[in-house]
Design brief:
The model has no long low-confidence stretch (mean pLDDT 96). This protein has a single domain, classed as TIM Barrel (Alpha-Beta Barrel). The strands form 2 sheets. An 8-stranded parallel β-sheet has the order 9-8-7-6-5-2-1-10. β5, α4 and β6 form a beta-alpha-beta unit. The chain is globular, with a radius of gyration of 17 Å. The chain is built from 9 helices and 10 strands. The structure holds pyridoxal-5'-phosphate. The site of pyridoxal-5'-phosphate (PLP) has 14 residues, from β10 and α9.
């Protein structure tokens, strides 16, 4: 078994245990493998171990990897690419043309551009609205107060499907204190659904806090380090 396959196994066990501990149905949490800074071979190793959905943060690095891996499949299905990094206006076209999902939609203007630039012969782009749950001006995402209006506006755009919310809380080592921000995002999500939006995705939880996120209702966890190892940003082209 490759190291990546063994790590994937460990992460899937963590997810299963956290899902069961929360009294949630088995299989209700999807794993997104965050492959940023790692090469195409790392993605192939994960694919060979049964992982089909990959998350990327940097547009050019991702486009190179997507091109290299074009045609590779798992059980006859193509790889699924999720953009999860900060997205500037001048990069929306490449993302709209090459990704299946965007988790990091952090303002209406970005969603409008993605919708306008999504090729009409492709399925709608699946998107999440990123919420700034830590309340820092430096963080991406709309404020909790802005979420309902922005979510409604995005849900009305033609070439996107709004799937839910995404958040990246401040790192917090104490597991007992990791849950509060995730709970706040889930409450926003529940309120949107109660208000009639058909959402099914809560993208939250990373290597260090996936258990807390699953306990609070995450449906997709984004895991990099625990699968691929420590990132070396210095080697990134
Ligand atoms: C890098 C990254 C991750 C993965 O983080 P790990 O701690 O390595 O699991 C998840 N989400 C986003 C938005 C990221 O940028």
């Amino acid at each position: 078994m490759s190291t990546i396959a063994a790590h994937l196994d460990d992460v899937l066990s963590r997810i299963s245990r956290a899902t069961a501990d929360a009294g949630r149905p088995a299989g209700s949490v999807r794993l997104l493998a965050v492959s940023k800074t790692f090469g195409a071979q790392a993605v192939r190793d994960a694919l060979a171990a049964g992982q089909r959905a990959f998350g990327e943060n940097y547009v050019q690095e991702a486009l190179d990897k997507i091109a290299t891996l074009k045609g590779e499949t798992l059980g006859g299905q193509p790889l699924e690419w999720h953009f999860i990094g900060p997205l500037q206006s001048n990069k929306t076209r490449a993302v709209a043309e090459h990704f299946d999902w965007v988790h990091s939609v952090d303002r209406l203007k970005i969603a409008q551009r993605l919708s306008a630039q999504r090729p009409t012969d492709m399925p709608p782009l699946q998107v999440c609205l990123q919420v700034n749950i830590s309340g820092e001006a430096s963080k991406s995402g709309v404020t909790p107060e802005e979420v309902p209006a922005v979510a409604r506006a995005i849900a009305a755009l033609p070439n996107l499907t709004l799937r839910g919310l995404m958040a990246i809380p401040e790192p917090e080592d104490d597991p007992a204190r990791q849950r509060a921000p995730f709970r706040a995002v889930r409450e926003l999500f529940d309120a949107l659904r109660a208000d009639g939006l058909a959402l099914d995705t809560l993208s939250m939880g990373m290597s260090a806090d996936l258990e807390a996120a699953v306990a609070e209702g995450a449906t997709m966890v984004r895991i990099g380090t625990a699968i691929f190892g420590t990132r070396d940003y210095g080697s990134r082209a």
